[in-house]
């Protein structure tokens, strides 16, 4: 909803350059029609500040396409029934094995830290531990508090490429935090959600399924070669895509885009499975 609004919003905003449309696409056509210098109009539409621009919109579309592309990465392990001869199957292990859970957990962690830090800073600013957790100030544009120091500042994405260049340590810390947090949460999630190699091996054994060419006792060992790696590496990829979205200036936050794409893709997969099962029932 936010992306569509930022792309096509008809709201006009008075800036130093005169009245402008908020929506990036509408602003592009408006500038091309009203400005005599078309090159300057294009430059303004692509790079205007403090309002959504075409570059932000293209970055958002690119992140969507990259995430959808990576959703198709998987390792398919063949399995067969011990009892029914000739009954073959497969167990797919996706690159995004834990789906969007790493980014959900990371987002929850950051949100809670922000809440606690702001609460403490309003009452006890000046204390060393409180300032270490985060320093805050009111934003000129949004009216909301933004972190300007402490841990809360360093786990927040840099606001622009200029901000990254001015404070490279902040950018580096944010990248390391995102990648390590997503990998750690992904590894932890498979243990608590019942999707670890041990749990999957147990489920396959209960269904009387084995992997061709492997002993039944080696099933967990074989799954251990793929599942923990897929969980950790998938978490790192999710974190990297979030960082990329933030650094490219995609509309909304990188976290929000990742959540939106993965949820939409999950609905699409569910629809495809239901469609396939219905066709199977009718013999197609």
Automatic annotation (TrEMBL):
GO terms for cellular component: chloroplast thylakoid membrane. PANTHER family: SECY/SEC61-ALPHA FAMILY MEMBER (PTHR10906). The keyword Transmembrane helix applies. The keyword Transit peptide does not apply. Belongs to the SecY/SEC61-alpha family. This is Protein transport protein Sec61 subunit alpha like. Its main location: plastid. Keywords: Membrane, Transmembrane, Transmembrane helix. InterPro entries: SecY/SEC61-alpha, SecY_dom_sf. The chain crosses the membrane at residues 57-77, 103-121, 226-244, 250-268. GO terms for biological process: protein transport. It comes from Actinidia chinensis var. chinensis (Chinese soft-hair kiwi). It is a multi-pass membrane protein. It holds the Pfam family SecY. It is found in: Plastid, Chloroplast thylakoid membrane.
């Amino acid at each position: 909803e936010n992306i569509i609004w930022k792309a096509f919003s008809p709201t006009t905003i008075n800036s130093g350059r005169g009245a402008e449309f908020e929506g990036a696409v509408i602003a592009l056509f408006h500038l091309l029609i009203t400005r005599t210098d078309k090159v300057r109009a294009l430059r303004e539409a692509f790079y205007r500040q403090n309002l959504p621009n075409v570059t932000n919109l293209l970055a958002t579309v690119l992140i969507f396409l990259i995430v959808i592309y990576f959703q198709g990465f998987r390792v398919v392990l063949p399995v067969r029934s011990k009892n029914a001869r000739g009954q073959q199957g497969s167990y797919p292990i996706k690159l995004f094995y834990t789906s969007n859970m790493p980014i959900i957990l990371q987002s929850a962690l950051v949100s809670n830290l922000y809440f606690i830090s702001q609460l403490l800073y309003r009452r006890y600013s000046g204390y060393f531990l409180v300032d270490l957790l985060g320093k805050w100030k009111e934003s000129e544009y949004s009216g909301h508090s933004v972190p300007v120091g402490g841990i809360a500042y360093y786990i927040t994405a840099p606001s622009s490429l200029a901000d990254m260049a001015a404070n490279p340590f902040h950018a580096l810390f944010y990248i390391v935090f995102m990648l390590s947090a997503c990998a750690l949460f992904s590894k932890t999630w498979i243990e608590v959600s019942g999707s670890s190699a041990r749990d999957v091996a147990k489920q396959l054994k209960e269904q009387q399924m084995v992997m061709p060419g492997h002993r039944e006792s080696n099933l967990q060992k074989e799954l251990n070669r793929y599942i923990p790696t897929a969980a950790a590496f998938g978490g790192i990829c999710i974190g990297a895509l979030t960082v990329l979205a933030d650094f490219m200036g995609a509309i909304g936050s990188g976290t929000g885009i990742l959540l939106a794409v993965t949820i939409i893709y999950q609905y699409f997969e569910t629809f495809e499975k239901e469609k396939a099962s219905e066709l199977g029932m009718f013999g197609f």
